[in-house]
Design a protein that fits this description.
The chain is α/β, with parallel strands linked by helices and 400 residues long. The protein has 13 helices and 15 strands. The protein has helices at 5-10, 32-44, 54-74, 87-98, 120-129, 176-185, 205-208, 232-236, 261-275, 285-312, 339-348, 361-366, 386-397; strands at residues 2-3, 20-21, 81-84, 107-111, 132-136, 158-164, 189-193, 212-216, 226-230, 278-279, 317-320, 329-334, 351-352, 354-356, 375-379. The strands form four sheets. A seven-stranded mixed beta sheet has the order 3-9-8-7-6-4-5, with helices on both faces. Strand 6 (158-164), helix 6 and strand 7 form a beta-alpha-beta unit. Helix 3 crosses helix 10 and helix 10 (285-312) packs parallel to helix 13 (386-397). The longest helix has 28 residues, at 285-312. The structure holds pyridoxal-5'-phosphate. Residues 26, 86-88, 115, 117-118, 164, 168, 193, 195-196, 216, 226 line the site of pyridoxal-5'-phosphate.
Length: 400
Amino acid sequence: MTFDVKRVRAAYPALSDGYAYLDGAAGTQVPAAVIEAIADAYRSGIGNVGGEFPASERSGSIVAECRQALADLTGGHPDGVILGPNMTTLTYRLADTLSLRWAPGDEVVVSRLDHDANVRPWVQAAARRGAAVRWAEADLATTELPAAQYAGLFSERTRLVAVTAASNVVGTRPDVAAIAAAAHAAGALVYVDGVHATPHVPVDVGALGADFYATSAYKWSGPHIGTVVAEPALLETLQPDKLAPAPAGVPGRFERGTAAFADLAGVAAAVEHLAALARPAAGSRRDRVLTSMAAVEEYETLLFARMLDGLAAMEHVTLYGRAARRTPTAFFTVAGQTPRQVARHLAARQVNVWNGDNYAWELAGVLGIRDSGGAVRAGLVHYNDEADVDRLLAAVAVLA
Ligand SMILES: Cc1ncc(COP(=O)(O)O)c(C=O)c1O
């Protein structure tokens, strides 16, 4: 199994502009195959779904193929794939729906490590229902989210546990399977934010113990579409608000209004792209996704070591994030510079990074950097190479 980054980069038209795209954690570039799939959908003629003419049937096929592709990516069932505009919108929708069953005195557990999109919707829904919120704390020295603390957070009133599969700033990958097992033993449902993890590691929602797994295609080379994957039988038990004539079945009743059909064709093409990143590829698309993403993880881990070692060797750089299992995402500050100044300096040298709290609101708060501009985030994805990393390191080095 080989991972050829030159071949991979050649698939992305945008990468030819000479910039080092280290901003992938906020959204990746898109390969030509995805652009073509979206254009082809429009070129071939698409209509709304449910009609008696071919253009409508083409849209129906696009939706079905998209659900199957997302099932192959996550190990879920296509009938449990809810499609929507992005993770935040879908998480609010699920929080509204699930909280209909909560009563005063019930409890939900959220974490200090999570992106706010997997915190605030639950906190706000809990407040509306009179439910209590319990917090899992990140260990600030290691930026781990210790799974052992969860046993003490659960009671017979725990209804839901929301936890991330990877922090979008420090990259920590908590032991979601252990947290989910404890949650299930307490009778709670588990909502996993897979937005930051999915581009970096093979995903298996069953092994994670995720009752709900959210991810957004624009973080892994696809268009701006989000999804939540759940067991169809679980979705059958839930009744989201919906329009009277809208689909009553699952997963359709969780989807609002007319879908972005052409973009959904792009999502399926993006999964196909991920499945073909490593060569040779063999087996079902699910098999190819798993082997390809394992090769991606290996490649990114090596490249990240180069980036981390380089940053750690600079005395004027403070690094946040020390978890044993993490995605290739660096979060750092530079002495004497605000994170925004660093980002501007890097942009002038054709290096794209993010600055701020990046919506890791709670974590930035407990790290004590939220009010001082957060930190700089430089994240790798599979199309980054040594030249990108070396350009970042050289540009940060001159700030000493
Ligand atoms: C870990 C994580 N969760 C959730 C989100 C929100 O995703 P979306 O933009 O699809 O709403 C992001 C986006 O940056 C993220 O990185």
